[in-house]
Amino acid sequence: MSESILAAATAPEAGARSLVETVAGPIPLDSLDVTLMHEHLFVLTPDVQQNQPHLWNEEERIEDAVVRLTAAHDMGVRTFVDLTVIGQGRFVPRVQKVAARVPLNIIVATGVYTYHDVPYFFHYRGPGRLFEQPEPITELLIRDITAGIADTGVKAAVLKCATEEEGLSEGVERVLRATARAHRATGTPITTHSNAFLRNGLLQQKVFREEGVDLSNVIIGHSGDTDDLDYLKQLMDAGSMIGMDRFGLDNFTPHGTRVKIVADLVAAGYADRMVLSHDCPCHIDYFTDEQRAEALPDWDYTHLHKRVLPALRELGVSESALRTMLVDNPRRYFEQVSPY
């Protein structure tokens, strides 16, 4: 299956930027091939690991990640987008150790992940704050993209932000606007966490539009949680791609429903506005491994190839449409625009 997708992939458009940053450095867009666009390696609460070291075995977790990513590669995946950012325990040196041992391209993100308040590091600093200064969130994001993350030399290639609750808290709106400004300053594309049940991808688009963002540079993530096709079409008709990116999270939306949503939208002509993924971590400390295995047995990086793609084919989705969602759309997304 994966070879048919790769063999039929179209060439990048003339004049488009031809490189994208990965953990191992810049690579040609042609090298992305089949891409999981919304995943995680480790989602952690660092204060807990640092103060309760019995809960964390570094080498064991790295080994497990190598096994999981190698299995994805064996199924046909060639690029893995790790959207773990500040607020989710991102630690790039650990990601580098995994990347050095797997035959995958790994792309990392920058951003601030919050459902309500900004981290206290930013609380008193910035425009209109106790200590008046240019927005430090935007400065941090731009540095991760242009200079690299900490002293790793790894540059972020995606901007990530989140809107989970109804409405916009001051902190979330601040992060959205800082993200939009970092995008415009660098051309780096944006991917969001959204709550599709609340239809708040529309709110994200509203803020981005107010900041002058071209919405074609935005993926509204977790859109596949809802079967409200009118809402999903509204997001795409405004210019954004949508992330059908929680396959395996059947406790949110059942497998069959998720598959049918994608098939129905492909039939309606929207294959060029969707990307596919799992939103899956190798390890997440929100629950134990045993709880995860019992509640979410299909939540892993091979689920798309094992169950989702065969189910989409059964519903009439063509190889061409699968290629579009897995290869062409990710490549087009990373054809960065110039700052504007």
| Known CATH architecture | Alpha-Beta Barrel
Structural class based on helices, strands and sheet pairing: alpha/beta
Give me the CATH fold name: TIM Barrel
**Element-by-element helix/strand order:** HEEEEHHEHEHHEHEHEHEHEEHHH
Number of domains: 1
State the helical fraction.
Answer: 40-55%
Rough outline? globular
Overview of this protein structure:
This protein is of the alpha/beta class and 340 residues long. It has one domain: TIM Barrel. 40% of the residues lie in helices and 14% in strands. The chain contains 13 helices and twelve strands. The protein has helices spanning 2-7, 46-51, 58-75, 92-99, 120-123, 136-146, 170-186, 201-210, 229-237, 255-267, 289-295, 303-314, 319-333, and strands at residues 19-22, 25-28, 35-39, 42-43, 79-82, 105-111, 158-162, 190-193, 218-221, 241-244, 274-276, 283-284. Strands 3-5-6-7-8-9-10-11 form an eight-stranded parallel sheet. α10 links the parallel β10 (241-244) and β11 (274-276). α3 (58-75) crosses α4 (92-99) and α6 (136-146) runs parallel beside α7. It starts with a helix and ends in a 7-residue tail after the last helix. The relative contact order is 0.15. Residues 1-15 have low confidence and may be disordered.
Which features would summarize this protein structure in a list?
TIM Barrel, two-stranded antiparallel ribbon, 14% strand, 340 residues, 40% helix
Question: What's a quick, concise take on this entry?
Answer:
By secondary structure, the protein is of the alpha/beta class. An eight-stranded parallel β-sheet has the order 3-5-6-7-8-9-10-11.
